[in-house]
Input
Amino acid sequence: MRAKALMAAILVALGLPTSALAHAVLLEGVPTYGATLAKAPRSVQLQFDQTVDAFPDAVDVRSSSGKVVTAGPAHTTDSGRRVIVPLHRVPKGAYTVRWQVTSNEGHIVSGVYTFGVRVKPPPPTEAYGARGPTKLEYVAKWGYFVGLALLVGGLAFRLLVLRGRALPPALERRFYWVVGVGVVGSIELGILVFILRAADAFQLPLGQLIYGDLSPLARGTRFGTAFIAMTLGFSVVAAFLFLAWLTDRTILLWPAFFLGLALCSGLSLSGHDAVDVGSSWTSELADYVHLVAASFWVGGLVMLAFVVWPTSPSLRRDAFHRFSQLAAVLVGAMVLAGAYLAYDRLPKVSDLWQERYGQVLLIKSSLVVLALSWGALHHFVVAPALERGRGVGSRAVARSLRGESAVAIAILLVVAVLVDANPPAKPAQRPTQAVVTHK
Amino acid sequence: MEPPAEVVHWMFGVGFVFLGLCLLAEAIVGPTVWRRRAWRGYLWPGIAFLMGVLMWPVMVFFTSSAIHMLAHSAWAQTLMLVGAAQLGLVRGKLHNQLWELTLPLALVVSGLAFLIHEQNPWLFSRSAFLHHALGWTLLAGAVVCLGRAVRPRSPAFNAGFAVMIVTVAALLFCDRNIAPIFGHLSPLAGAR
Output
């Protein structure tokens, strides 16, 4: 049965699309993506590596308010390799370029990027016409957070809570399954989230999106940089985990753990707390602490409920006691960092019920209170009972642990919605006296 | 600043040459002699696994299209999977011989993908020719590997697998970004 499940998983993994090299590739755009120009450009020029067919409306250039600024149809030069569209004299502002040409083998190749005239342009994800996030994106992000929690929390549990203990083979096997699912999920869902974000920016059906040029998104945004670093990092983490399993050397789990911890910062350095107006290193740090503590807590709970409890009755009491101590610290860090972030992001208390961000935060907080109450029950009632030698074989405790894990995983779904919600804008700072005098 | 795509293909060609030579040596002397040194058993699966890990930078840095990224991520995963499964079997961590099927499965998926994607005829350009050639080579290799999974000690199947890998390496070394094949290059592909 297990072999069949494995084979099915492998088939799904191998069923992912492969190959493609022959379609046209955009070598250079003038203005290039993310450029801030001192003078308004008179045209947009796209240089491809091979001949392309361009319809008159192949290149669409719009201002941030959606006004079309092209002054004529697109045409090709350089034996069909360069597409040019003239522009009106454009004022200061940010502009979005959407292009779509037919490659020589018949594929439609497309892309989107932004440039600014005397202003810094927004990233392609905030280009004019970009939409999202979709429900599928929320689900993908949820899976991504769960994967991250299983990986980082699972490793933390194995290395910190179960340190120095002789572990039965069944427990080790299940541990590697859990963290293996975590790392593979983090890689696969990370790629999916990236593609879905690109779909939001491109606003194209999937059939055309697969030939979309993702370079502006990958290179021109913090999100893209985080995607590159995290995909590379998680592939190395996967290699360390595999080698630890293959050679039975627990020491190889440490680099995997530290690398996983470091990779969590990718989310903090590319999220609201890093890119929004008013963000600072303290907001980034608080977000990182919040994320890491939550990952330890959720992953640890899953390990306790689904790995230790079913496979090793002799370790239950000890593991429960140790995790209970660690969880108290984690919850403290999580709540403090979360409270700071809420204070930082919500200028007014009424934003909690008036703004969408605040409403989602309220739902998340309610679930957190439920999970913490459940955890408190475990900490103050179940742990002492286990210490006295009661309830070690109890099914009620096992069910209760699974219940708390389920609530913790449900919180991650709300988090997936929260990270894509925009916090309310902070009130503009009053100009200083010096500026007023100058004006 | 990434290297040209053809250079990356040549680098992976080097990996496949090593892989193929190890397999060829094992096929010539037989598994018993080859594995007198225990580490030799880990050699080709280890190279395959490492090549899988090294494929990830190609995936994330060459982002000219979504399908290009997905293709390289799939190849990275299949290489890591095949290497990991073989290492697990050699080490004795995996016991079920069904794991041997990961190899033909990976080759089938990769080969079909080459063939399905390539819309142009064989002589359109060198890259089109290589896509066709690689696709069919991998499919033929999958049949050989299926036989190898059933009869793992067969010299014919083992030699066939090794030759297939060396052929893949040779095809990768033939790659150029825009180049003719047997004197043919379509104007659409860049001929001036």
In short: Confidence is low (pLDDT under 50) at residues 9-21, 431-439 of chain A. Residues 88 and 165 of chain A are 72 Å apart (CA to CA). Residues 26-126 of chain A form a domain with the Immunoglobulin-like fold (CATH 2.60.40.1220). The two ends of chain A are 77 Å apart (CA to CA).
